[in-house]
């Protein structure tokens, strides 16, 4: 398969593309190094709202992948950006970890556990029944409901654990109110990422390991997409979806060569074959 348009910018998911748990996946360090070497604008995206960009930068570095802090875009940062655009001056009740609370605080919001304008639900490894009860009461009283991402489960060394989407469903059942999800597959997260690096959808590629989040969000934002088979989605599962990625490759290792070969200054067809 050939692409006739140049690739000026890159977006990539983190877990399942660059790392698995705390281990770098084959070719990940070389791919990021190539982006830096050729000075290509890029962002590493994650629906994980637990950690700050600085935390994730350190985590990747321990895996041998050097990604500057400013090249990481989380659902927490996208949520804070959305609130700053939509609800400047509002008060917010947050269920989440430092990645979310610091992102919202840095945008000038006041965190309020008495009568907030918004309830923002993020991911945490220690969901508190008391905090969830407060959220239900605030939403029932009129607070608007936002969640960082719709993932129902998350990974842990012991196996799957409940994540933001599962807790959001609990709150929705109790209140009758559905949250507005900011993270993937909402193309809003892709749009905020594009704006952050002044990228254009026509010349940007999204790399991901999940059809139901990475690929669909890239597709709906107008990006070309690459599904890598190093994470969640298996190749035989692709046909179950009504949409397809632009390419399917075994891992990010097969993409590294494209960074240098298919540069934005060139418009000729370049094949990955």
Structure description:
The protein has helices at residues 28-37, 53-62, 75-86, 98-106, 129-140, 164-175, 187-196, 211-220, 256-261; strands spanning 2-3, 9-13, 19-20, 23-24, 42-46, 72-74, 91-95, 110-111, 118-121, 144-147, 153-154, 161-162, 180-181, 204-208, 224-228, 247-249, 270-271. The protein has 273 residues and is of the alpha/beta class. It folds into 2 domains: 2-47 and 185-271, HAD superfamily/HAD-like (Rossmann fold, 3-Layer(aba) Sandwich); 76-181, HAD superfamily/HAD-like (Rossmann fold, 3-Layer(aba) Sandwich). Strand 14, helix 8 (211-220) and strand 15 form a beta-alpha-beta unit. It starts with a strand and ends with a strand.
Number of strands: 17
CATH secondary-structure class of the largest domain: Alpha Beta
Terminal Cα span? 8 Å
Shape summary: globular
- What class do helices, strands and sheet pairing give? alpha/beta
- Gyration radius (Cα, Å) is 19 Å
How many strands, what sense, and barrel or not for the largest sheet?
6 strands, parallel
Average pLDDT, rounded to a whole number, is 91
SSE series: EEEEHEHEHEHEEHEEEHEHEHEEHE
CATH fold category name of the largest domain: Rossmann fold
CATH architecture tag of the largest domain: 3-Layer(aba) Sandwich
In terms of DSSP E residues, the strand content is 15-25%
CATH homologous superfamily grouping of the largest domain: HAD superfamily/HAD-like
